[in-house]
């Protein structure tokens, strides 16, 4: 089996994010729930993917949940990604590997300077300048987490599922009012960060990635169509960061 065929795994706070590369080109991505044993891992892998989880195919793992990494250390094909090997300047010690990989993938694929907005369990902003040096960023609760906070910390508000359909700003029922409040506030916040970033780096690439990419894309296209034209929507960005990482360690 060619060493250019490999699996990538990002262990997130809510799900496992997988990718399969053939000839070092991204072929497929999918998500699974977390498993606590190798037997459970076999149960949650899609049938057409199980043949990839073999010792002959390298598995590159990054994780924001250190305790969940132990399972994959039992597999002989596992390489734990060390983001310290990524040549980004100014990365601080506690910066998440997901943010580092996404920023590196975004800059390498779409050019530096770049701003990466990752819309997952947390919504993060991470920017680097033309010298591949971290400028800084911000972290706040993501769409689903904000909705869950209202449900768990109030007596009367219902639990609301994030809907893919477009919700008007001025809602006429409680579930839609919750979605409107969360989504439009997040949209406004994202726009504010993008506007400020483009003031500093007018030629920068802007990439929105993560699990809520499609949801936020449809809102941006409807509410801020001109800004949406400047945004690259790429839900697979972190795996391109893994690919660039693999290329780095291959050369070293």
TrEMBL record:
It is found in: Cytoplasm. One of its GO terms (biological process) is coenzyme A biosynthetic process. Substrate binds at residues 92, 96-99, 174. Its cofactor is K(+); NH4(+). Pfam families: Pan_kinase. The active site is at 98 (proton acceptor). Keywords: ATP-binding, Coenzyme A biosynthesis, Cytoplasm, Kinase, Metal-binding, Nucleotide-binding, Potassium, Transferase. GO terms for cellular component: cytoplasm. K(+) binds at residue 118. Its EC number is 2.7.1.33. InterPro entries: ATPase_NBD, Type_III_PanK. CDD domains: ASKHA_NBD_PanK-III (cd24015). Gene3D superfamilies: 3.30.420.40. ATP binds at residues 10-17, 121. It comes from the Bacteria. Pathway: Cofactor biosynthesis; coenzyme A biosynthesis; CoA from (R)-pantothenate: step 1/5. A monovalent cation. Ammonium or potassium. GO terms for molecular function: ATP binding; metal ion binding; pantothenate kinase activity. It is an enzyme of class 2 (transferase). It catalyses: (R)-pantothenate + ATP = (R)-4'-phosphopantothenate + ADP + H(+). Homodimer. Catalyzes the phosphorylation of pantothenate (Pan), the first step in CoA biosynthesis. Belongs to the type III pantothenate kinase family. This is Type III pantothenate kinase. It comes from Cyanobacterium stanieri (strain ATCC 29140 / PCC 7202). The gene is coaX.
